Amino acid sequence: MKQTMREHQQIMEEQQQKKDEEHQKMMQEQQRNLVEQQERRMQLMEQQMREQIMEQIRQLNPLQWEDDAGSIRINGTDYFLEQGHWHSPSEHSINGRRYDLELHMVHVTEDPSVKNKIAVVGLFYKIGQPDAFLSKLMRNIASMAEIKAERNMGVIDPREIKMGCKR
Predict the structure, then answer these.
(1) Are residues 47 and 69 in the same domain?
(2) Residue 74 sits in a domain of what CATH number?
(3) Residue 135 and residue 156 in contact, taking contact as beta carbons nearer than 8 Å
(4) Residue 104 in contact with residue 87, Cβ under 8 Å?
(5) Using one digit for the tens of pLDDT, what is the confidence trace for 110-130?
(6) Helix (H) or strand (E) holding 87
(7) CA distance 59 to 51
(8) 20 to 30 A Cα–Cα from 98, which one of 23, 24, 27, 41?
């Protein structure tokens, strides 16, 4: 009889251990599902934020510079910065990668001896850390959303456009 009680107790312990393992698996699966749901929510929120930023940028197109906003020299010819506009997503790619935003800085020359009167410098943006130049412009965008007309953006120095690569 002692043997039977021990066997019964061992069977009960094994069954309880099985239940505990199944419960643990179920809890782990629920935890995985919660993490996946949270990741999907975060991705959706990031996508919505990206779309809102892109819509605000689109409302800013194009940005005209007045007076001497700067210039570039190509093969001895000066091209003066006239205008900037954005494309979202980027119009161009590097090694097949497109970026969230691309700024085109349009330069023009008045040199009559030059065949190509326009030079465009492109700058890629990736949504992430705030960009000082764009942040300055964004302050004016909210007030522009309802009024679809030209607006003086005040003094914006194109030298604030940060060139370079962060990896």
Answers:
(1) no
(2) 3.10.200.10
(3) no
(4) yes
(5) 888 988 899 999 988 887 777
(6) strand 77-87
(7) 12
(8) 41
